[in-house]
Amino acid sequence: MSQEQKKLWCDGPYELISASKAGDKAGEKPTGSRAMAREMILVHNLLIRGINCVHRQAVRLSQEGSAQDKLDFASFALQWSRTLHHHHNLEEDELFPRLAAAAGDPELMNGPSSEHRDFDAGLEKYEAYLKAVLEGREEFDGTKLKGIVDEVMPIVHGHLVREIDVLLGLSRYEGSVDWMPIFEEVVGNSASRDMKQSWYRTDLFPLVLHLHDKSFEDGAFANFPPVPWIVLLGIRWIFCRTRASWWRFAGCDGNSMPQELPFAEEA
């Protein structure tokens, strides 16, 4: 591919969610359910970027990549799925029950929670194929992987978008519930607990950094992640290097700024 030919990036084919969906306005800090929805948009967008990276590089990598490239890419793609599971487990086990208890409605988040089951089978197929590649039981076939993504991702993407609407709808409780302290406590406790685990420091958190785009919508989410700079420096300089061969397929560098996808399709 010549330098004149423009490569696709991870802002598609599955569309990112605009910060404006949470009612963002210049110079105005969102509060309540809008603030919570805004934080969830950030997380959902990095998940969308991740699968877009897989979708837009799988075919060319299959054709042009080395055997090691294919194994590294399969590891990157599988870590995306593990990160999605981690996110949904946190919602089901901790966040959603806390939100429901605060509202006094045990069924408050049943809709988003039940939607997770809608794509279980598709994710299992995706993971099974990648594990077969990594274990040497199947050859890497980018067209096959891309097809599996296109089977499951419309369902996942629809869920990620709808969940934002559900969170925004919690504004009806704001006379009696302050949502952000609950959200921040759940997420903060989870991060503190997980940071003690080696897999989180080497596999999950670095992926988050490499899928977050600080330049998105003129820096709407530039202040992520909300951790002390010294912790972030350690993650970037020590733990991001552990799986550096995986993160080269991500849409952003370790500073969460856009980078070229090495095996992206031509635009």
UniProtKB/TrEMBL annotation:
<dbReference type="InterPro" id="IPR053206">
    <property type="entry name" value="Dimeric_xanthone_biosynth"/>
</dbReference>
<protein>
    <recommendedName>
        <fullName>Hemerythrin-like domain-containing protein</fullName>
    </recommendedName>
</protein>
<dbReference type="Pfam" id="PF01814">
    <property type="entry name" value="Hemerythrin"/>
</dbReference>
<feature type="domain" description="Hemerythrin-like">
    <location>
        <begin position="44"/>
        <end position="165"/>
    </location>
</feature>
<dbReference type="InterPro" id="IPR012312">
    <property type="entry name" value="Hemerythrin-like"/>
</dbReference>
